[in-house]
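Tokens help. Our protein:
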Amino acid sequence: MKKIPVAATIAHAYRFAFGQAPTLLRAIWLPLLIQLVVVFFLIKRSALLFAAMQAQDPSATTLIGPVLLLFVPAIILFFVQLTAAMETALGEPPRSWFYFPIGRKMWRLLGGFLTGVFSIIAVALGALLVIWVIAVGLDLLLKAAPGTRPVVAILGGLLVAIYGCGLFFFAIRFLFLLAPSNVSGPTLGVGRAWHLSAGNFWRAFLIVLAILVPLTIIQYAFEAALAGFPPVSRGMSKEAAQAAEMTWRIAEMNAMADRWYLTLPLTGMLMLLQFGAGCAAQAFAYRALTENDASAPIAGG
């Protein structure tokens, strides 16, 4: 069974993200620019929606529709960029500066991700049913023997932990290699992604951490610079803590919309880095699992 080389994959991901940034920008700049415009209006509409909800304004229901409608083009544009970025990472960059892959390959990629997500949801629902049956049994045990409460509490905590870790396991197995499996082949790639990731969960997990953690830190640092840190809920009632959190969230979104000249460029740079490092890592891992040492090198490698 082949293994993903963790250090080499992470090194290639960042080497590609920075070294091939102009090539990647040429591939995704058009859908990225359109998505940033959509994101701007999504932030403004979401701020209005949350403010109306906090004020218990009846008009809040009329604001839900426009927000949901904006999510549709945002999702489609994301997968247009993902298709172009993955093609570039696999060594097939576009030859034109005006590239907008919204054809069969993009829809197949979107369909593959939806299939993977629905598969995870099916597993989650099945696991919830099993947990419910176990919870009923534990409740009967607790009623029959009240002294077992500490043991029941520990078992309940273990069940919740196992459930969460299990969902994360299935998400990594289904989704980590889905994009390269899909873009490089004629099928949805869900089964192939699951098969290739067998025995590589922890390696894929470390790669995901190495890419997401730095990006998340940068994102939260920028949000904190705009609106400050989230309120500390210590000593507050549940309702007061929720109200403070909502107020801070609204202030954050308004600040992001007002300072769009900072928000949108930084968002664009983060997305460029995310697509570059993420797609390069997945493409490198995919090639490592599917090709021999004599295979053609990966773009930017």
In short: The mean pLDDT is 89. The radius of gyration is 23 Å.
